[in-house]
């Protein structure tokens, strides 16, 4: 059996075999709940029946633990002011009174009998001794009240005597002005005991009355809890459990909440390595300076917004967006303790999809945090943006490709001419260059820039480099078409037919065309992307980069129209697109748009 010295109005009764080993129990008691309810208008119809009790065992309890609670009910419907004063002060007296000395003094003065004194002595806790003594004063008159205050003063507990006198004076004034607020005089109020296990959700507990003290109750704290918080509230009978628990949570946070912030920094040498700390708000600058000295100088420039956190609460952290934790466990947990620098962790992130965020300077993601497993509202939850610089190879074109007709023509010629017996690739490229020296220069550059060194890749690079040296006002595609007509009219006709959908004027695969297609494809974009053979990693990248299905559809079509899959369909490219759209259950409107240009 345990009884906290700070408040003897509760007892913890632990059954045998409840723990695997010898275990300590720690109590924390907050007696100031009543003052907090008075200061909060939302709690005007709530009265406090107990202190807020925190119980922590060193080891996990294997069985249920009984908790006896003697609430402050002020349960007197009528009676003298002396009676009501003793009743109202009972819980403080139980905790602070030197019960055996006061009982002996009262016995000596003839205010309690021999039998009562013996009954007091045989009680098995200080709290129960005090409650037995105060039972003799439940019908207290002026003479008994004076005897009690006199005994307190003579046994060096004058502060309790003054407390009784002051309370009686205040109650006399309150009753004169407002009437009595004792619980028993209001029939629609009831006692509810609420508890939280392991800093989890608050629950209204089942309770039973104690036989020897009818106003007392006993509750069962669940097995495998280890840490508990308990309080008693006097609430309206029609108040639902969820509201009671919300009020309990509010009171708890007002009692133990500490203002804190989250600090996130990244290594200056390796930005994928991060360091996160939760510290009291007034220690942020010191903590940030310490992190810099340890090599974590980069990262988000600002701390998180200030939030309240209680001693022992956990912060749950995940990484979302295009970054993810480089670990088998995708969750960080920081446990916060006041005056202990425990809420800290290093971590490593990796880029989820390097094809995503192609138009951005950096890869980015969000560090998401929440105080407790249950979803919280801001500021006890929030996000902090992290950035990871890209390597040069990941800096790519803007989301919508420019100069599409030229790029498509270069890709098409690089694929089609080598597979045709109508024209040799060397003859075409020499004619395009115009002079032998220009041909040699462009050819050498193509050889140098080609990653794979294939004839197809070098031909594409050759055409693009040729175009880059021509005046901007020239229509390069028209020049290529004219050249082909002089070299191979049949191939030129095929080239013109292939290029028609990519025409800047009204081509369905031009930038304007795919913008209109995207509006019609809308939610079917992902199915269509799969049917067109687009790589799943590219599909994921599009999901990350864009949050609107129309923009996703446009981006997908932009990628596909320049892919080898589209180019190698040749003049059948629109027929293939139509078939894939039909298989994707796209609308008739979008199918009509395609068929109009076939």
Number of strands: 19
User: What's the oligomerization state?
Assistant: single chain
Radius of gyration equals 40 Å
Helix content: 40-55%
Question: How far do the termini sit from each other?
Answer: 89 Å
The class by helix and strand makeup works out as alpha+beta
The parts where pLDDT drops under 50 for at least 5 residues are: 178-186, 393-398
Largest sheet: 6 strands, antiparallel
- Tell the overall outline: rod-shaped
Share of β-strand residues: 15-25%
Mean pLDDT: 88
The structural domain count equals 4
**Number of discrete helical segments:** 23
Report on this model:
With 598 residues, the protein is an alpha+beta fold. The chain folds into 4 domains: 10-72 and 184-239, Sandwich (Chondroitinase Ac, Chain A, domain 3); 81-181, Death Domain, Fas; 257-394, Sandwich (Immunoglobulin-like); 404-595, no CATH class. The chain is built from 23 helices and 19 strands. Strands 2, 3, 4, 6, 7 and 10 form a 6-stranded antiparallel beta sheet that branches. It has a 5-stranded antiparallel beta sheet with strand order 13-11-12-17-15. Strands 1-5-9-8 form a 4-stranded antiparallel beta sheet, with no helix packed on it. A hairpin with a 7-residue loop joins strand 8 (208-209) and strand 9 (217-221). Helix 4 (99-108) packs antiparallel against helix 5, helix 7 (142-154) runs antiparallel to helix 8 and helix 13 packs across helix 14 (455-468). The N and C termini lie far apart (89 Å). Residues 178-186 and 393-398 have low confidence and may be disordered.
């Amino acid at each position: 059996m345990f009884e906290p010295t700070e408040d003897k109005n509760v007892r913890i009764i632990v059954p045998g075999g409840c723990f695997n080993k010898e275990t300590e129990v720690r109590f924390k008691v907050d007696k100031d709940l009543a003052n907090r309810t008075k200061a909060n208008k939302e709690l005007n119809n709530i009265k406090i029946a107990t202190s807020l009790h925190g119980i922590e065992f060193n080891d996990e309890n294997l069985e249920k633990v009984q908790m006896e609670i003697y609430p402050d009910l002020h349960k007197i419907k009528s009676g003298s002011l002396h009676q009501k004063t003793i009743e109202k002060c009972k819980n403080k007296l139980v905790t602070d009174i030197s019960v055996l000395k006061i009982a002996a003094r009262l016995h000596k003065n003839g205010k309690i009998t021999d039998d009562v004194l013996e009954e007091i002595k045989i009680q098995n806790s200080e709290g129960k001794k005090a409650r037995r003594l105060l039972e003799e004063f439940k019908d207290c008159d002026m003479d008994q009240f004076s005897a009690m205050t006199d005994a307190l003063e003579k046994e060096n507990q004058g502060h309790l005597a003054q407390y009784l006198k002051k309370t009686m004076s205040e109650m006399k004034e309150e009753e004169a002005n407002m009437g009595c607020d004792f619980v028993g005089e209001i029939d629609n109020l009831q006692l509810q005991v609420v508890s939280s296990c392991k800093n989890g959700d608050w629950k209204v507990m089942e309770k039973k009355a104690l036989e020897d003290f009818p106003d007392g109750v006993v509750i069962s704290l669940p097995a495998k809890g280890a840490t508990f918080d308990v309080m008693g509230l006097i609430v309206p009978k029609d108040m639902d459990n969820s509201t009671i628990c919300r009020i309990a949570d509010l009171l708890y946070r007002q009692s133990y909440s500490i203002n804190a912030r989250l600090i996130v920094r990244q290594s200056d040498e390796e930005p994928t390595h991060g360091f996160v700390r939760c510290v009291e708000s007034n220690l942020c600058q010191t903590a940030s300076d310490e992190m810099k000295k340890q090599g974590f100088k980069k990262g988000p420039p600002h701390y998180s917004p200030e939030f309240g956190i209680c001693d022992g609460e956990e912060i749950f952290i995940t990484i979302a967006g295009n970054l993810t934790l480089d670990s088998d466990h995708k969750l960080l947990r920081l446990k916060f303790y006041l005056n202990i620098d425990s809420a800290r962790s290093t971590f490593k992130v990796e880029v989820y999809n390097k094809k995503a965020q192609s138009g951005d300077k950096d890869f980015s993601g969000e560090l998401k945090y929440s105080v407790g497993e249950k979803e919280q509202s801001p500021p006890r939850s929030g996000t902090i943006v992290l950035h990871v610089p890209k390597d040069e190879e990941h800096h790519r074109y803007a989301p919508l490709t420019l100069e599409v007709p030229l790029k498509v023509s270069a890709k098409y010629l690089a694929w089609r001419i080598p597979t045709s017996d109508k024209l040799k690739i060397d003859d075409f490229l020499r004619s395009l260059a115009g002079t032998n020296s220009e041909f040699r220069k462009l050819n050498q550059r193509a050889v140098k820039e080609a990653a794979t060194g294939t004839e197809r890749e070098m031909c594409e690079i050759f055409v693009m480099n040729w175009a880059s040296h021509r005046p901007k006002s020239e229509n390069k595609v028209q020049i290529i078409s004219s050249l082909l007509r002089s070299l191979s009219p049949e191939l030129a006709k095929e080239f013109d037919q292939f290029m028609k959908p990519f025409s800047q004027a009204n081509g369905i695969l031009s930038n304007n065309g795919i913008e209109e297609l995207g509006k019609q494809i809308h939610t079917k974009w992902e199915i269509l992307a799969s049917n067109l053979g687009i790589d799943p990693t590219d599909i994921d990248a599009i999901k990350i980069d864009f949050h609107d299905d129309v923009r996703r559809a446009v981006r997908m079509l932009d990628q596909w129209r320049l892919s080898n899959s589209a180019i190698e369909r040749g003049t059948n490219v629109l027929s293939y697109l139509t078939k894939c759209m039909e298989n994707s259950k796209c609308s008739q409107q979008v199918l009509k748009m395609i068929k109009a240009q076939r």
